[in-house]
Design goal:
- The chain is of the alpha/beta class and 278 residues long.
- The chain has 14 helices and five strands.
- The protein has a five-stranded parallel sheet, with helices on both faces.
- The protein is globular, with a radius of gyration of 20 Å.
């Protein structure tokens, strides 16, 4: 959606797709805008877990639970049941399903299973983003004219032009570019709290080969899952940056995270976005 700065400021219906790494300020932006006007907040990660990966998440949990004979018997006679209680603020079930590759004794997944789950996540994210026009209509029917698509950090890695074209047709794609300070904070967080991530298949295989060679490992199963995430995250950040830039240049606009963090009110955020559009 290409508008002039004045058209954006005066638009009755402001519809945004937020693009950037997790932790770069997407939620901060959404909260500031919601202070003044009502926005329908569409969480891509929530929709992935609640809709498209829900059955896979539950099957994974059930398989783990059934390893305990006592719990298995309770499940089979329906004394207990398992639910995926995912919320906007708690996406742990999605992360647990995605998992980390590496030594099973340290909680890692075998490489084939890890790649299978990565592929499922990619397909789920594609479908989730293609659902945005439907949810824009739903929000309008509910009387909410403004819309924020809070997309996951891996949106740039889908390499699916139909997704980007759909989002650009129905929303303004806004890339929040991390500053050097912000990047350092993201890397530090990944070191202290390594979490499951999505990787493009070719990138993952290339980086695994380097990691195994550097550590003199023969098999992926020898790798510490958390150590691998800590090692690969800065490389993933560099891998994603040109992809974000390309999407923003072709389909949207760019603001800097440091400028966003200076904003304290909704009108300041809107002026910042309008400045990027000019």
């Amino acid at each position: 959606m290409k508008l002039s700065a004045n058209e954006f400021i005066n638009a009755k219906h402001k519809r945004l797709t937020l693009l950037g790494m997790s932790g770069v300020g997407k939620t901060h932006l959404a909260k500031l805008l919601s202070q003044e006007d009502q926005y329908f907040h569409y969480s891509g990660d929530y929709r992935i877990g609640a809709q498209y990966l829900n059955s896979n998440i539950l099957n994974n949990i059930l398989a783990r639970v059934k390893q305990d004979p006592w719990l298995k018997s309770l499940l089979e006679d329906e004394s207990i049941n398992i639910q995926n209680n995912i919320t906007f603020d708690n996406l742990s079930s999605v992360s647990a399903f995605l998992g980390k590759v590496g030594n099973p004794e340290l909680g890692g997944l075998p490489i084939d299973e890890f790649i299978r789950r990565q592929a499922l996540h990619k397909e789920a994210e594609i479908q989730t983003m293609l659902d945005v026009p439907e949810f824009i209509n739903r929000s309008s029917e509910q009387g909410v004219s403004n819309f924020i698509n809070d997309a996951g950090g891996s949106l740039c890695e889908l390499d699916d032009e139909s997704v980007y074209q759909t989002l650009a047709e129905h929303t303004i794609i806004l890339y929040i570019r991390a500053s050097k300070t912000n990047e350092s904070a993201l890397i530090e967080r990944a070191q202290t709290h390594p979490k499951p991530l999505y990787y493009q298949a070719d990138f993952l295989q290339q980086q695994l080969a380097v990691y195994l060679s550097e550590n003199q490992f023969t098999y992926v199963a020898q790798a510490d899952p958390n150590a691998f995430v800590r090692w690969i995250f800065p490389r993933l950040l560099e891998h994603r940056k040109p992809k974000y830039e390309r999407i923003a240049q072709q389909y949207g606009y760019t603001i800097d995270s440091e400028d966003l963090y200076q904003c304290q009110r909704a009108d300041e955020v809107l002026e910042l976005i309008a400045g990027a559009i000019r």
